[in-house]
Design a protein that fits this description.
This protein has about 260 residues and is α+β, with helices and mostly antiparallel strands. About 55% of the residues lie in helices and about 20% in strands. It has seven helices and seven strands. A five-stranded mixed beta sheet has the order 1-2-5-4-3. Strands 6-7 form a two-stranded antiparallel ribbon. A hairpin with a 4-residue loop joins β4 and β5. α5 packs antiparallel against α6. About 15% of the residues are buried.
């Protein structure tokens, strides 16, 4: 079909496809910026970063068309938008299971993000043991001539969940290349490994809570740290006059 198109038709098609893919790339950029802001907020205010790392990806046009055919959608940009919801994907790896839900709530509370669906494979793991929290989110992307709401998938999981899922994918990919079925014995062992990873997450969560309790008990010993703030690796002493004025103002507001 492409051989029958004129050069101008090909240029127009390339322009439209590039513009289409750009919106998803910009949606990823927008979401990664929001995540980076949350990371810095956590580090500055809570001296703790719940996010280990992030990874983003765009589906290739070939993969998009293959998924569209499987879903039976119309071969058009509107058909793709309506049927392929994970063209843009962001994977966020957290330290602990509790961090996953804290981060999820933060994203859902951002008024300009629209949550389309949520699948909790942590509370309800897949039969093979897979665990992760999947969110479909519409992100506003501001172009030169319009604002588009772009759907993307956000997966949030722990380090242990991510380790298991990555290796499981590699094992299945090798069998898929050879058009072979995965032996039942391996499926059982993968499920057992997923259960071990889940128990590891539970143990690390418990240790994390115990360490926090110990630190709270020792907070008096670190009182001098309350006399300064750190922004962008710079330390600033708290101005006593400003602190006094703010505290007095708060007191006056409470009385009114």
């Amino acid at each position: 079909m492409l051989s029958t198109l004129s050069m101008q038709d090909l240029k127009n098609f390339k322009h439209e496809l590039t513009r289409f893919m750009m919106t998803y790339k910009f949606a990823l950029d927008e979401m990664e910026t929001r995540i980076e802001i949350l990371v810095q907020e956590f580090e500055m205010l809570h001296e703790y970063n719940p996010i280990e790392h992030t990874k983003s990806r765009l589906k290739s046009p070939e993969s998009i068309i293959q998924k569209l055919y499987r879903k039976g959608g119309d071969l058009s940009f509107d058909g793709i938008r309506g049927n392929v919801k994970d063209i843009a994907g962001l994977r966020i790896t957290c330290s602990f299971v509790s961090d996953i839900y804290v981060l999820s709530d933060m994203l859902k509370n951002q008024s300009d993000l629209h949550l389309l669906s949520e699948k909790d494979y942590i509370k309800h793991p897949k039969p093979n043991g897979y665990q992760s929290l999947h969110l479909l989110i519409e992100v506003p992307v501001h172009m030169s001539d319009r604002t588009e709401r772009v759907c993307m998938e956000v997966q949030i999981r722990t380090v242990a969940m991510d380790f298991w899922a990555s290796l499981e994918h590699k094992i299945f990919y090798k069998f898929k290349e050879g058009n072979q079925a995965v032996p039942q014995r391996l499926l059982q062992e993968l499920k057992q490994a997923a259960d071990v990873a889940a128990r590891l997450d539970e143990q690390m969560e418990r240790l994390h809570r115990e360490i926090e309790e110990i630190q709270e008990e020792q907070s008096d010993e670190a009182a001098d740290s309350l006399n300064r703030i750190i922004i962008n690796n710079q330390q600033f002493a708290l101005p006593k006059a400003l602190m006094s004025a703010l505290m007095n103002n708060d007191g006056d507001e409470d009385k009114s």
